[in-house]
């Protein structure tokens, strides 16, 4: 359920309530491939754009820069408690004894005492130094229950306020729910009008797991160009909004939080100006009818080895649910 709060500039800023009772701001800044420019993007987002939610990951290699940006924003007067910071546990760390050291390293890089949300980045364990695509022996057995217990322990020790997952299937979520003492607060998945991913959204809604939509604009190079999609463009012109705003708002109207990435100050600010208008039902349905539904982030490069398994195809990775 969405709740309205206000930023320091008085801008109406929605958030969603998580099962834990904490609130996740509805729009966050994505930072994948932001590199050395991440600090500047984070300061622009927080101080000028009114963002209160930043999404990063150890794998992005930019946690130090994100941390510097957060520190600079806090020097500008913001309190830590006003921010919602998400990071993710990488595939090489998916064994119980590696979870806590990985989180401690992430906190150190970000210069933070705690995270608001820590997510399992992918439900697939990789050997350190694994090749892309993986060679035989690079994909290891994943002790999902042991890793989740350690995630729960991080939460019990107040090092993270919420725990969750990314890139899970219904099959894997069902397995997790079978033993979880703490239900994942958030499931972060690829979602945009070119990949609605309705099956997982419905499952999460039924189980009160909040969904964050990643790659909401169709992702970056090699992604889906939704910014120039005919339907998106037509609706943007009709509502006097930009295609980026239409794509972000579509995600919000589906009840998901949304984490667009941008390094461009004007686009960063534009992407969060989505709270005082709605996409009318007819246009919303037109966006829901875009054809050629396809994942952009299908995990093939990272996890599929066509001859040596255990994942010999993209369909194997996603438990043949697409
Ligand atoms: P997005 O869908 O957010 O698209 C980003 C691209 O769109 C960039 O090229 C950006 O360029 C451009 N862009 C941003 N705003 C606008 C706009 N208003 N108009 C036109 N173009 C725009 O891509 P991501 O794949 O980065 O997804 C967002 C975030 O989701 C990631 O950064 C990451 O934090 C998270 N994520 C999580 C994953 C997971 O496995 N959990 C997987 C993938 C993403 P420019 O910078 O020049 O503005
Ligand atoms: C492989 C990482 C995708 C972005 O989260």
UniProtKB/TrEMBL annotation:
Gene3D superfamilies, A to Z: NADP-dependent oxidoreductase domain
Site (Lowers pKa of active site Tyr) residue list: 88
InterPro entries: AKR (IPR020471), AKR4C (IPR044498), Aldo/ket_reductase_CS (IPR018170), NAD(P)_OxRdtase_dom_sf (IPR036812), NADP_OxRdtase_dom (IPR023210)
GO term, biological process aspect, one: alkaloid biosynthetic process
Keywords: NADP, Oxidoreductase
Pfam families on file: Aldo_ket_red
Residue numbers binding substrate: 121
Example of a GO MF term: oxidoreductase activity
Span of domain NADP-dependent oxidoreductase: 27-290
Active-site positions on this chain: 60 (proton donor)
Annotated family: Belongs to the aldo/keto reductase family.
PANTHER family associated with the record: ALDO/KETO REDUCTASE
Protein name: NADP-dependent oxidoreductase domain-containing protein
Species annotation: Arabidopsis thaliana
